[in-house]
Write a structure and sequence with these properties.
Helices cover 67% and strands 2% of the residues. By secondary structure, it is an all-alpha fold. β1 and β2 form a beta hairpin.
């Protein structure tokens, strides 16, 4: 009976360590290294199952009802009543999580991405999916910088377009076209990452639309039908892409 009790105790401590690790870590307690006893026999004889738990599982400790962390040996030395309390705490916590559902998880326990892994500007490096994996504070930081970057990009494009208009007024269509191409490339860069931030992509599309409308005017005045047709087609493509982004956003909000 003692051997059976030892096996059960070792298994419970291993499971406690696996399922309560995140809760233990959130209280700032350092993990206590523990080695599972080598004399615990394998549970079963399947060739697909290892007789020992994974290395990381064997080194985890097990929180119990009183908030302490015990190794397997310490758990086994507890009086039976204390062991029962640990087991009851483990079972109760499991069913509490089950009944609460995934939405009831403590926000403080969520694993967030760190802003340190991204290069600046965030507008060009953070994706929409990664944005949702940031903490609320980092999310606010990224959005504040991105909105400011978007405003600067739009202002820059408008300034370049104004220079192009001056060139056209001075009857220098080639210089005007060069300015417009430069501004168009700026807008395309903002919309290059199709998984990028939606606000950055929409800003890029808006900048391109501003430029392409000026190109339509330019090529209409110069009579360049090939370039005129190309600019008009790009405007239609941008409108279609905008509709796709809005449709995806509505579906995401409804899910």
């Amino acid at each position: 009976m003692k051997m059976v009790a030892a096996i059960v105790a070792a298994c419970i401590v291993a499971v406690l360590g696996v399922l309560f690790l995140s809760n233990h870590s959130s209280h700032g307690k350092p993990p206590v290294s523990t080695q599972m006893p080598s004399d615990v026999p394998a549970l079963g004889h399947s060739s697909k199952l290892s007789s020992e738990p994974p290395q990381d599982a064997r080194q985890r400790d097990a929180p119990v009802a009183e908030g302490r962390s015990l190794t397997t040996e310490q758990f086994e030395r507890l009086p039976a009543q204390e062991q029962n309390k640990a087991i009851e705490s483990f079972v109760a916590a499991f069913w509490k999580r089950e009944s609460a559902g995934p939405q009831a998880a403590d926000p403080q326990e969520r694993q967030y991405l760190s802003l340190d892994i991204f290069n600046r500007s965030y507008m060009r490096t953070v994706t929409e999916k990664e944005l949702s994996q940031l903490s609320p504070q980092d999310h606010e930081t990224v959005m504040a910088e991105t909105l400011d970057s978007c405003r600067q990009s739009r202002d820059y494009v408008k300034d370049v377009v104004a220079q192009a208009q001056i060139g056209l007024a001075n009857r220098d269509p080639l210089r005007a076209e060069a300015y417009l191409i430069s501004a168009l490339e700026t807008g395309r860069e903002l919309n290059a990452k199709k998984d990028g931030l939606v606000i950055a992509r929409l800003t890029g599309i808006s900048c391109q639309a501003i430029v392409l409308k000026e190109m339509v005017s330019l090529y209409t005045s110069t009579g360049d039908s090939a370039k005129l047709g190309a600019a008009q087609q790009q405007l239609r493509d941008l409108q279609a892409e905008t509709n796709e982004i809005r449709s995806a956003a509505r579906q995401a909000d409804g899910s």
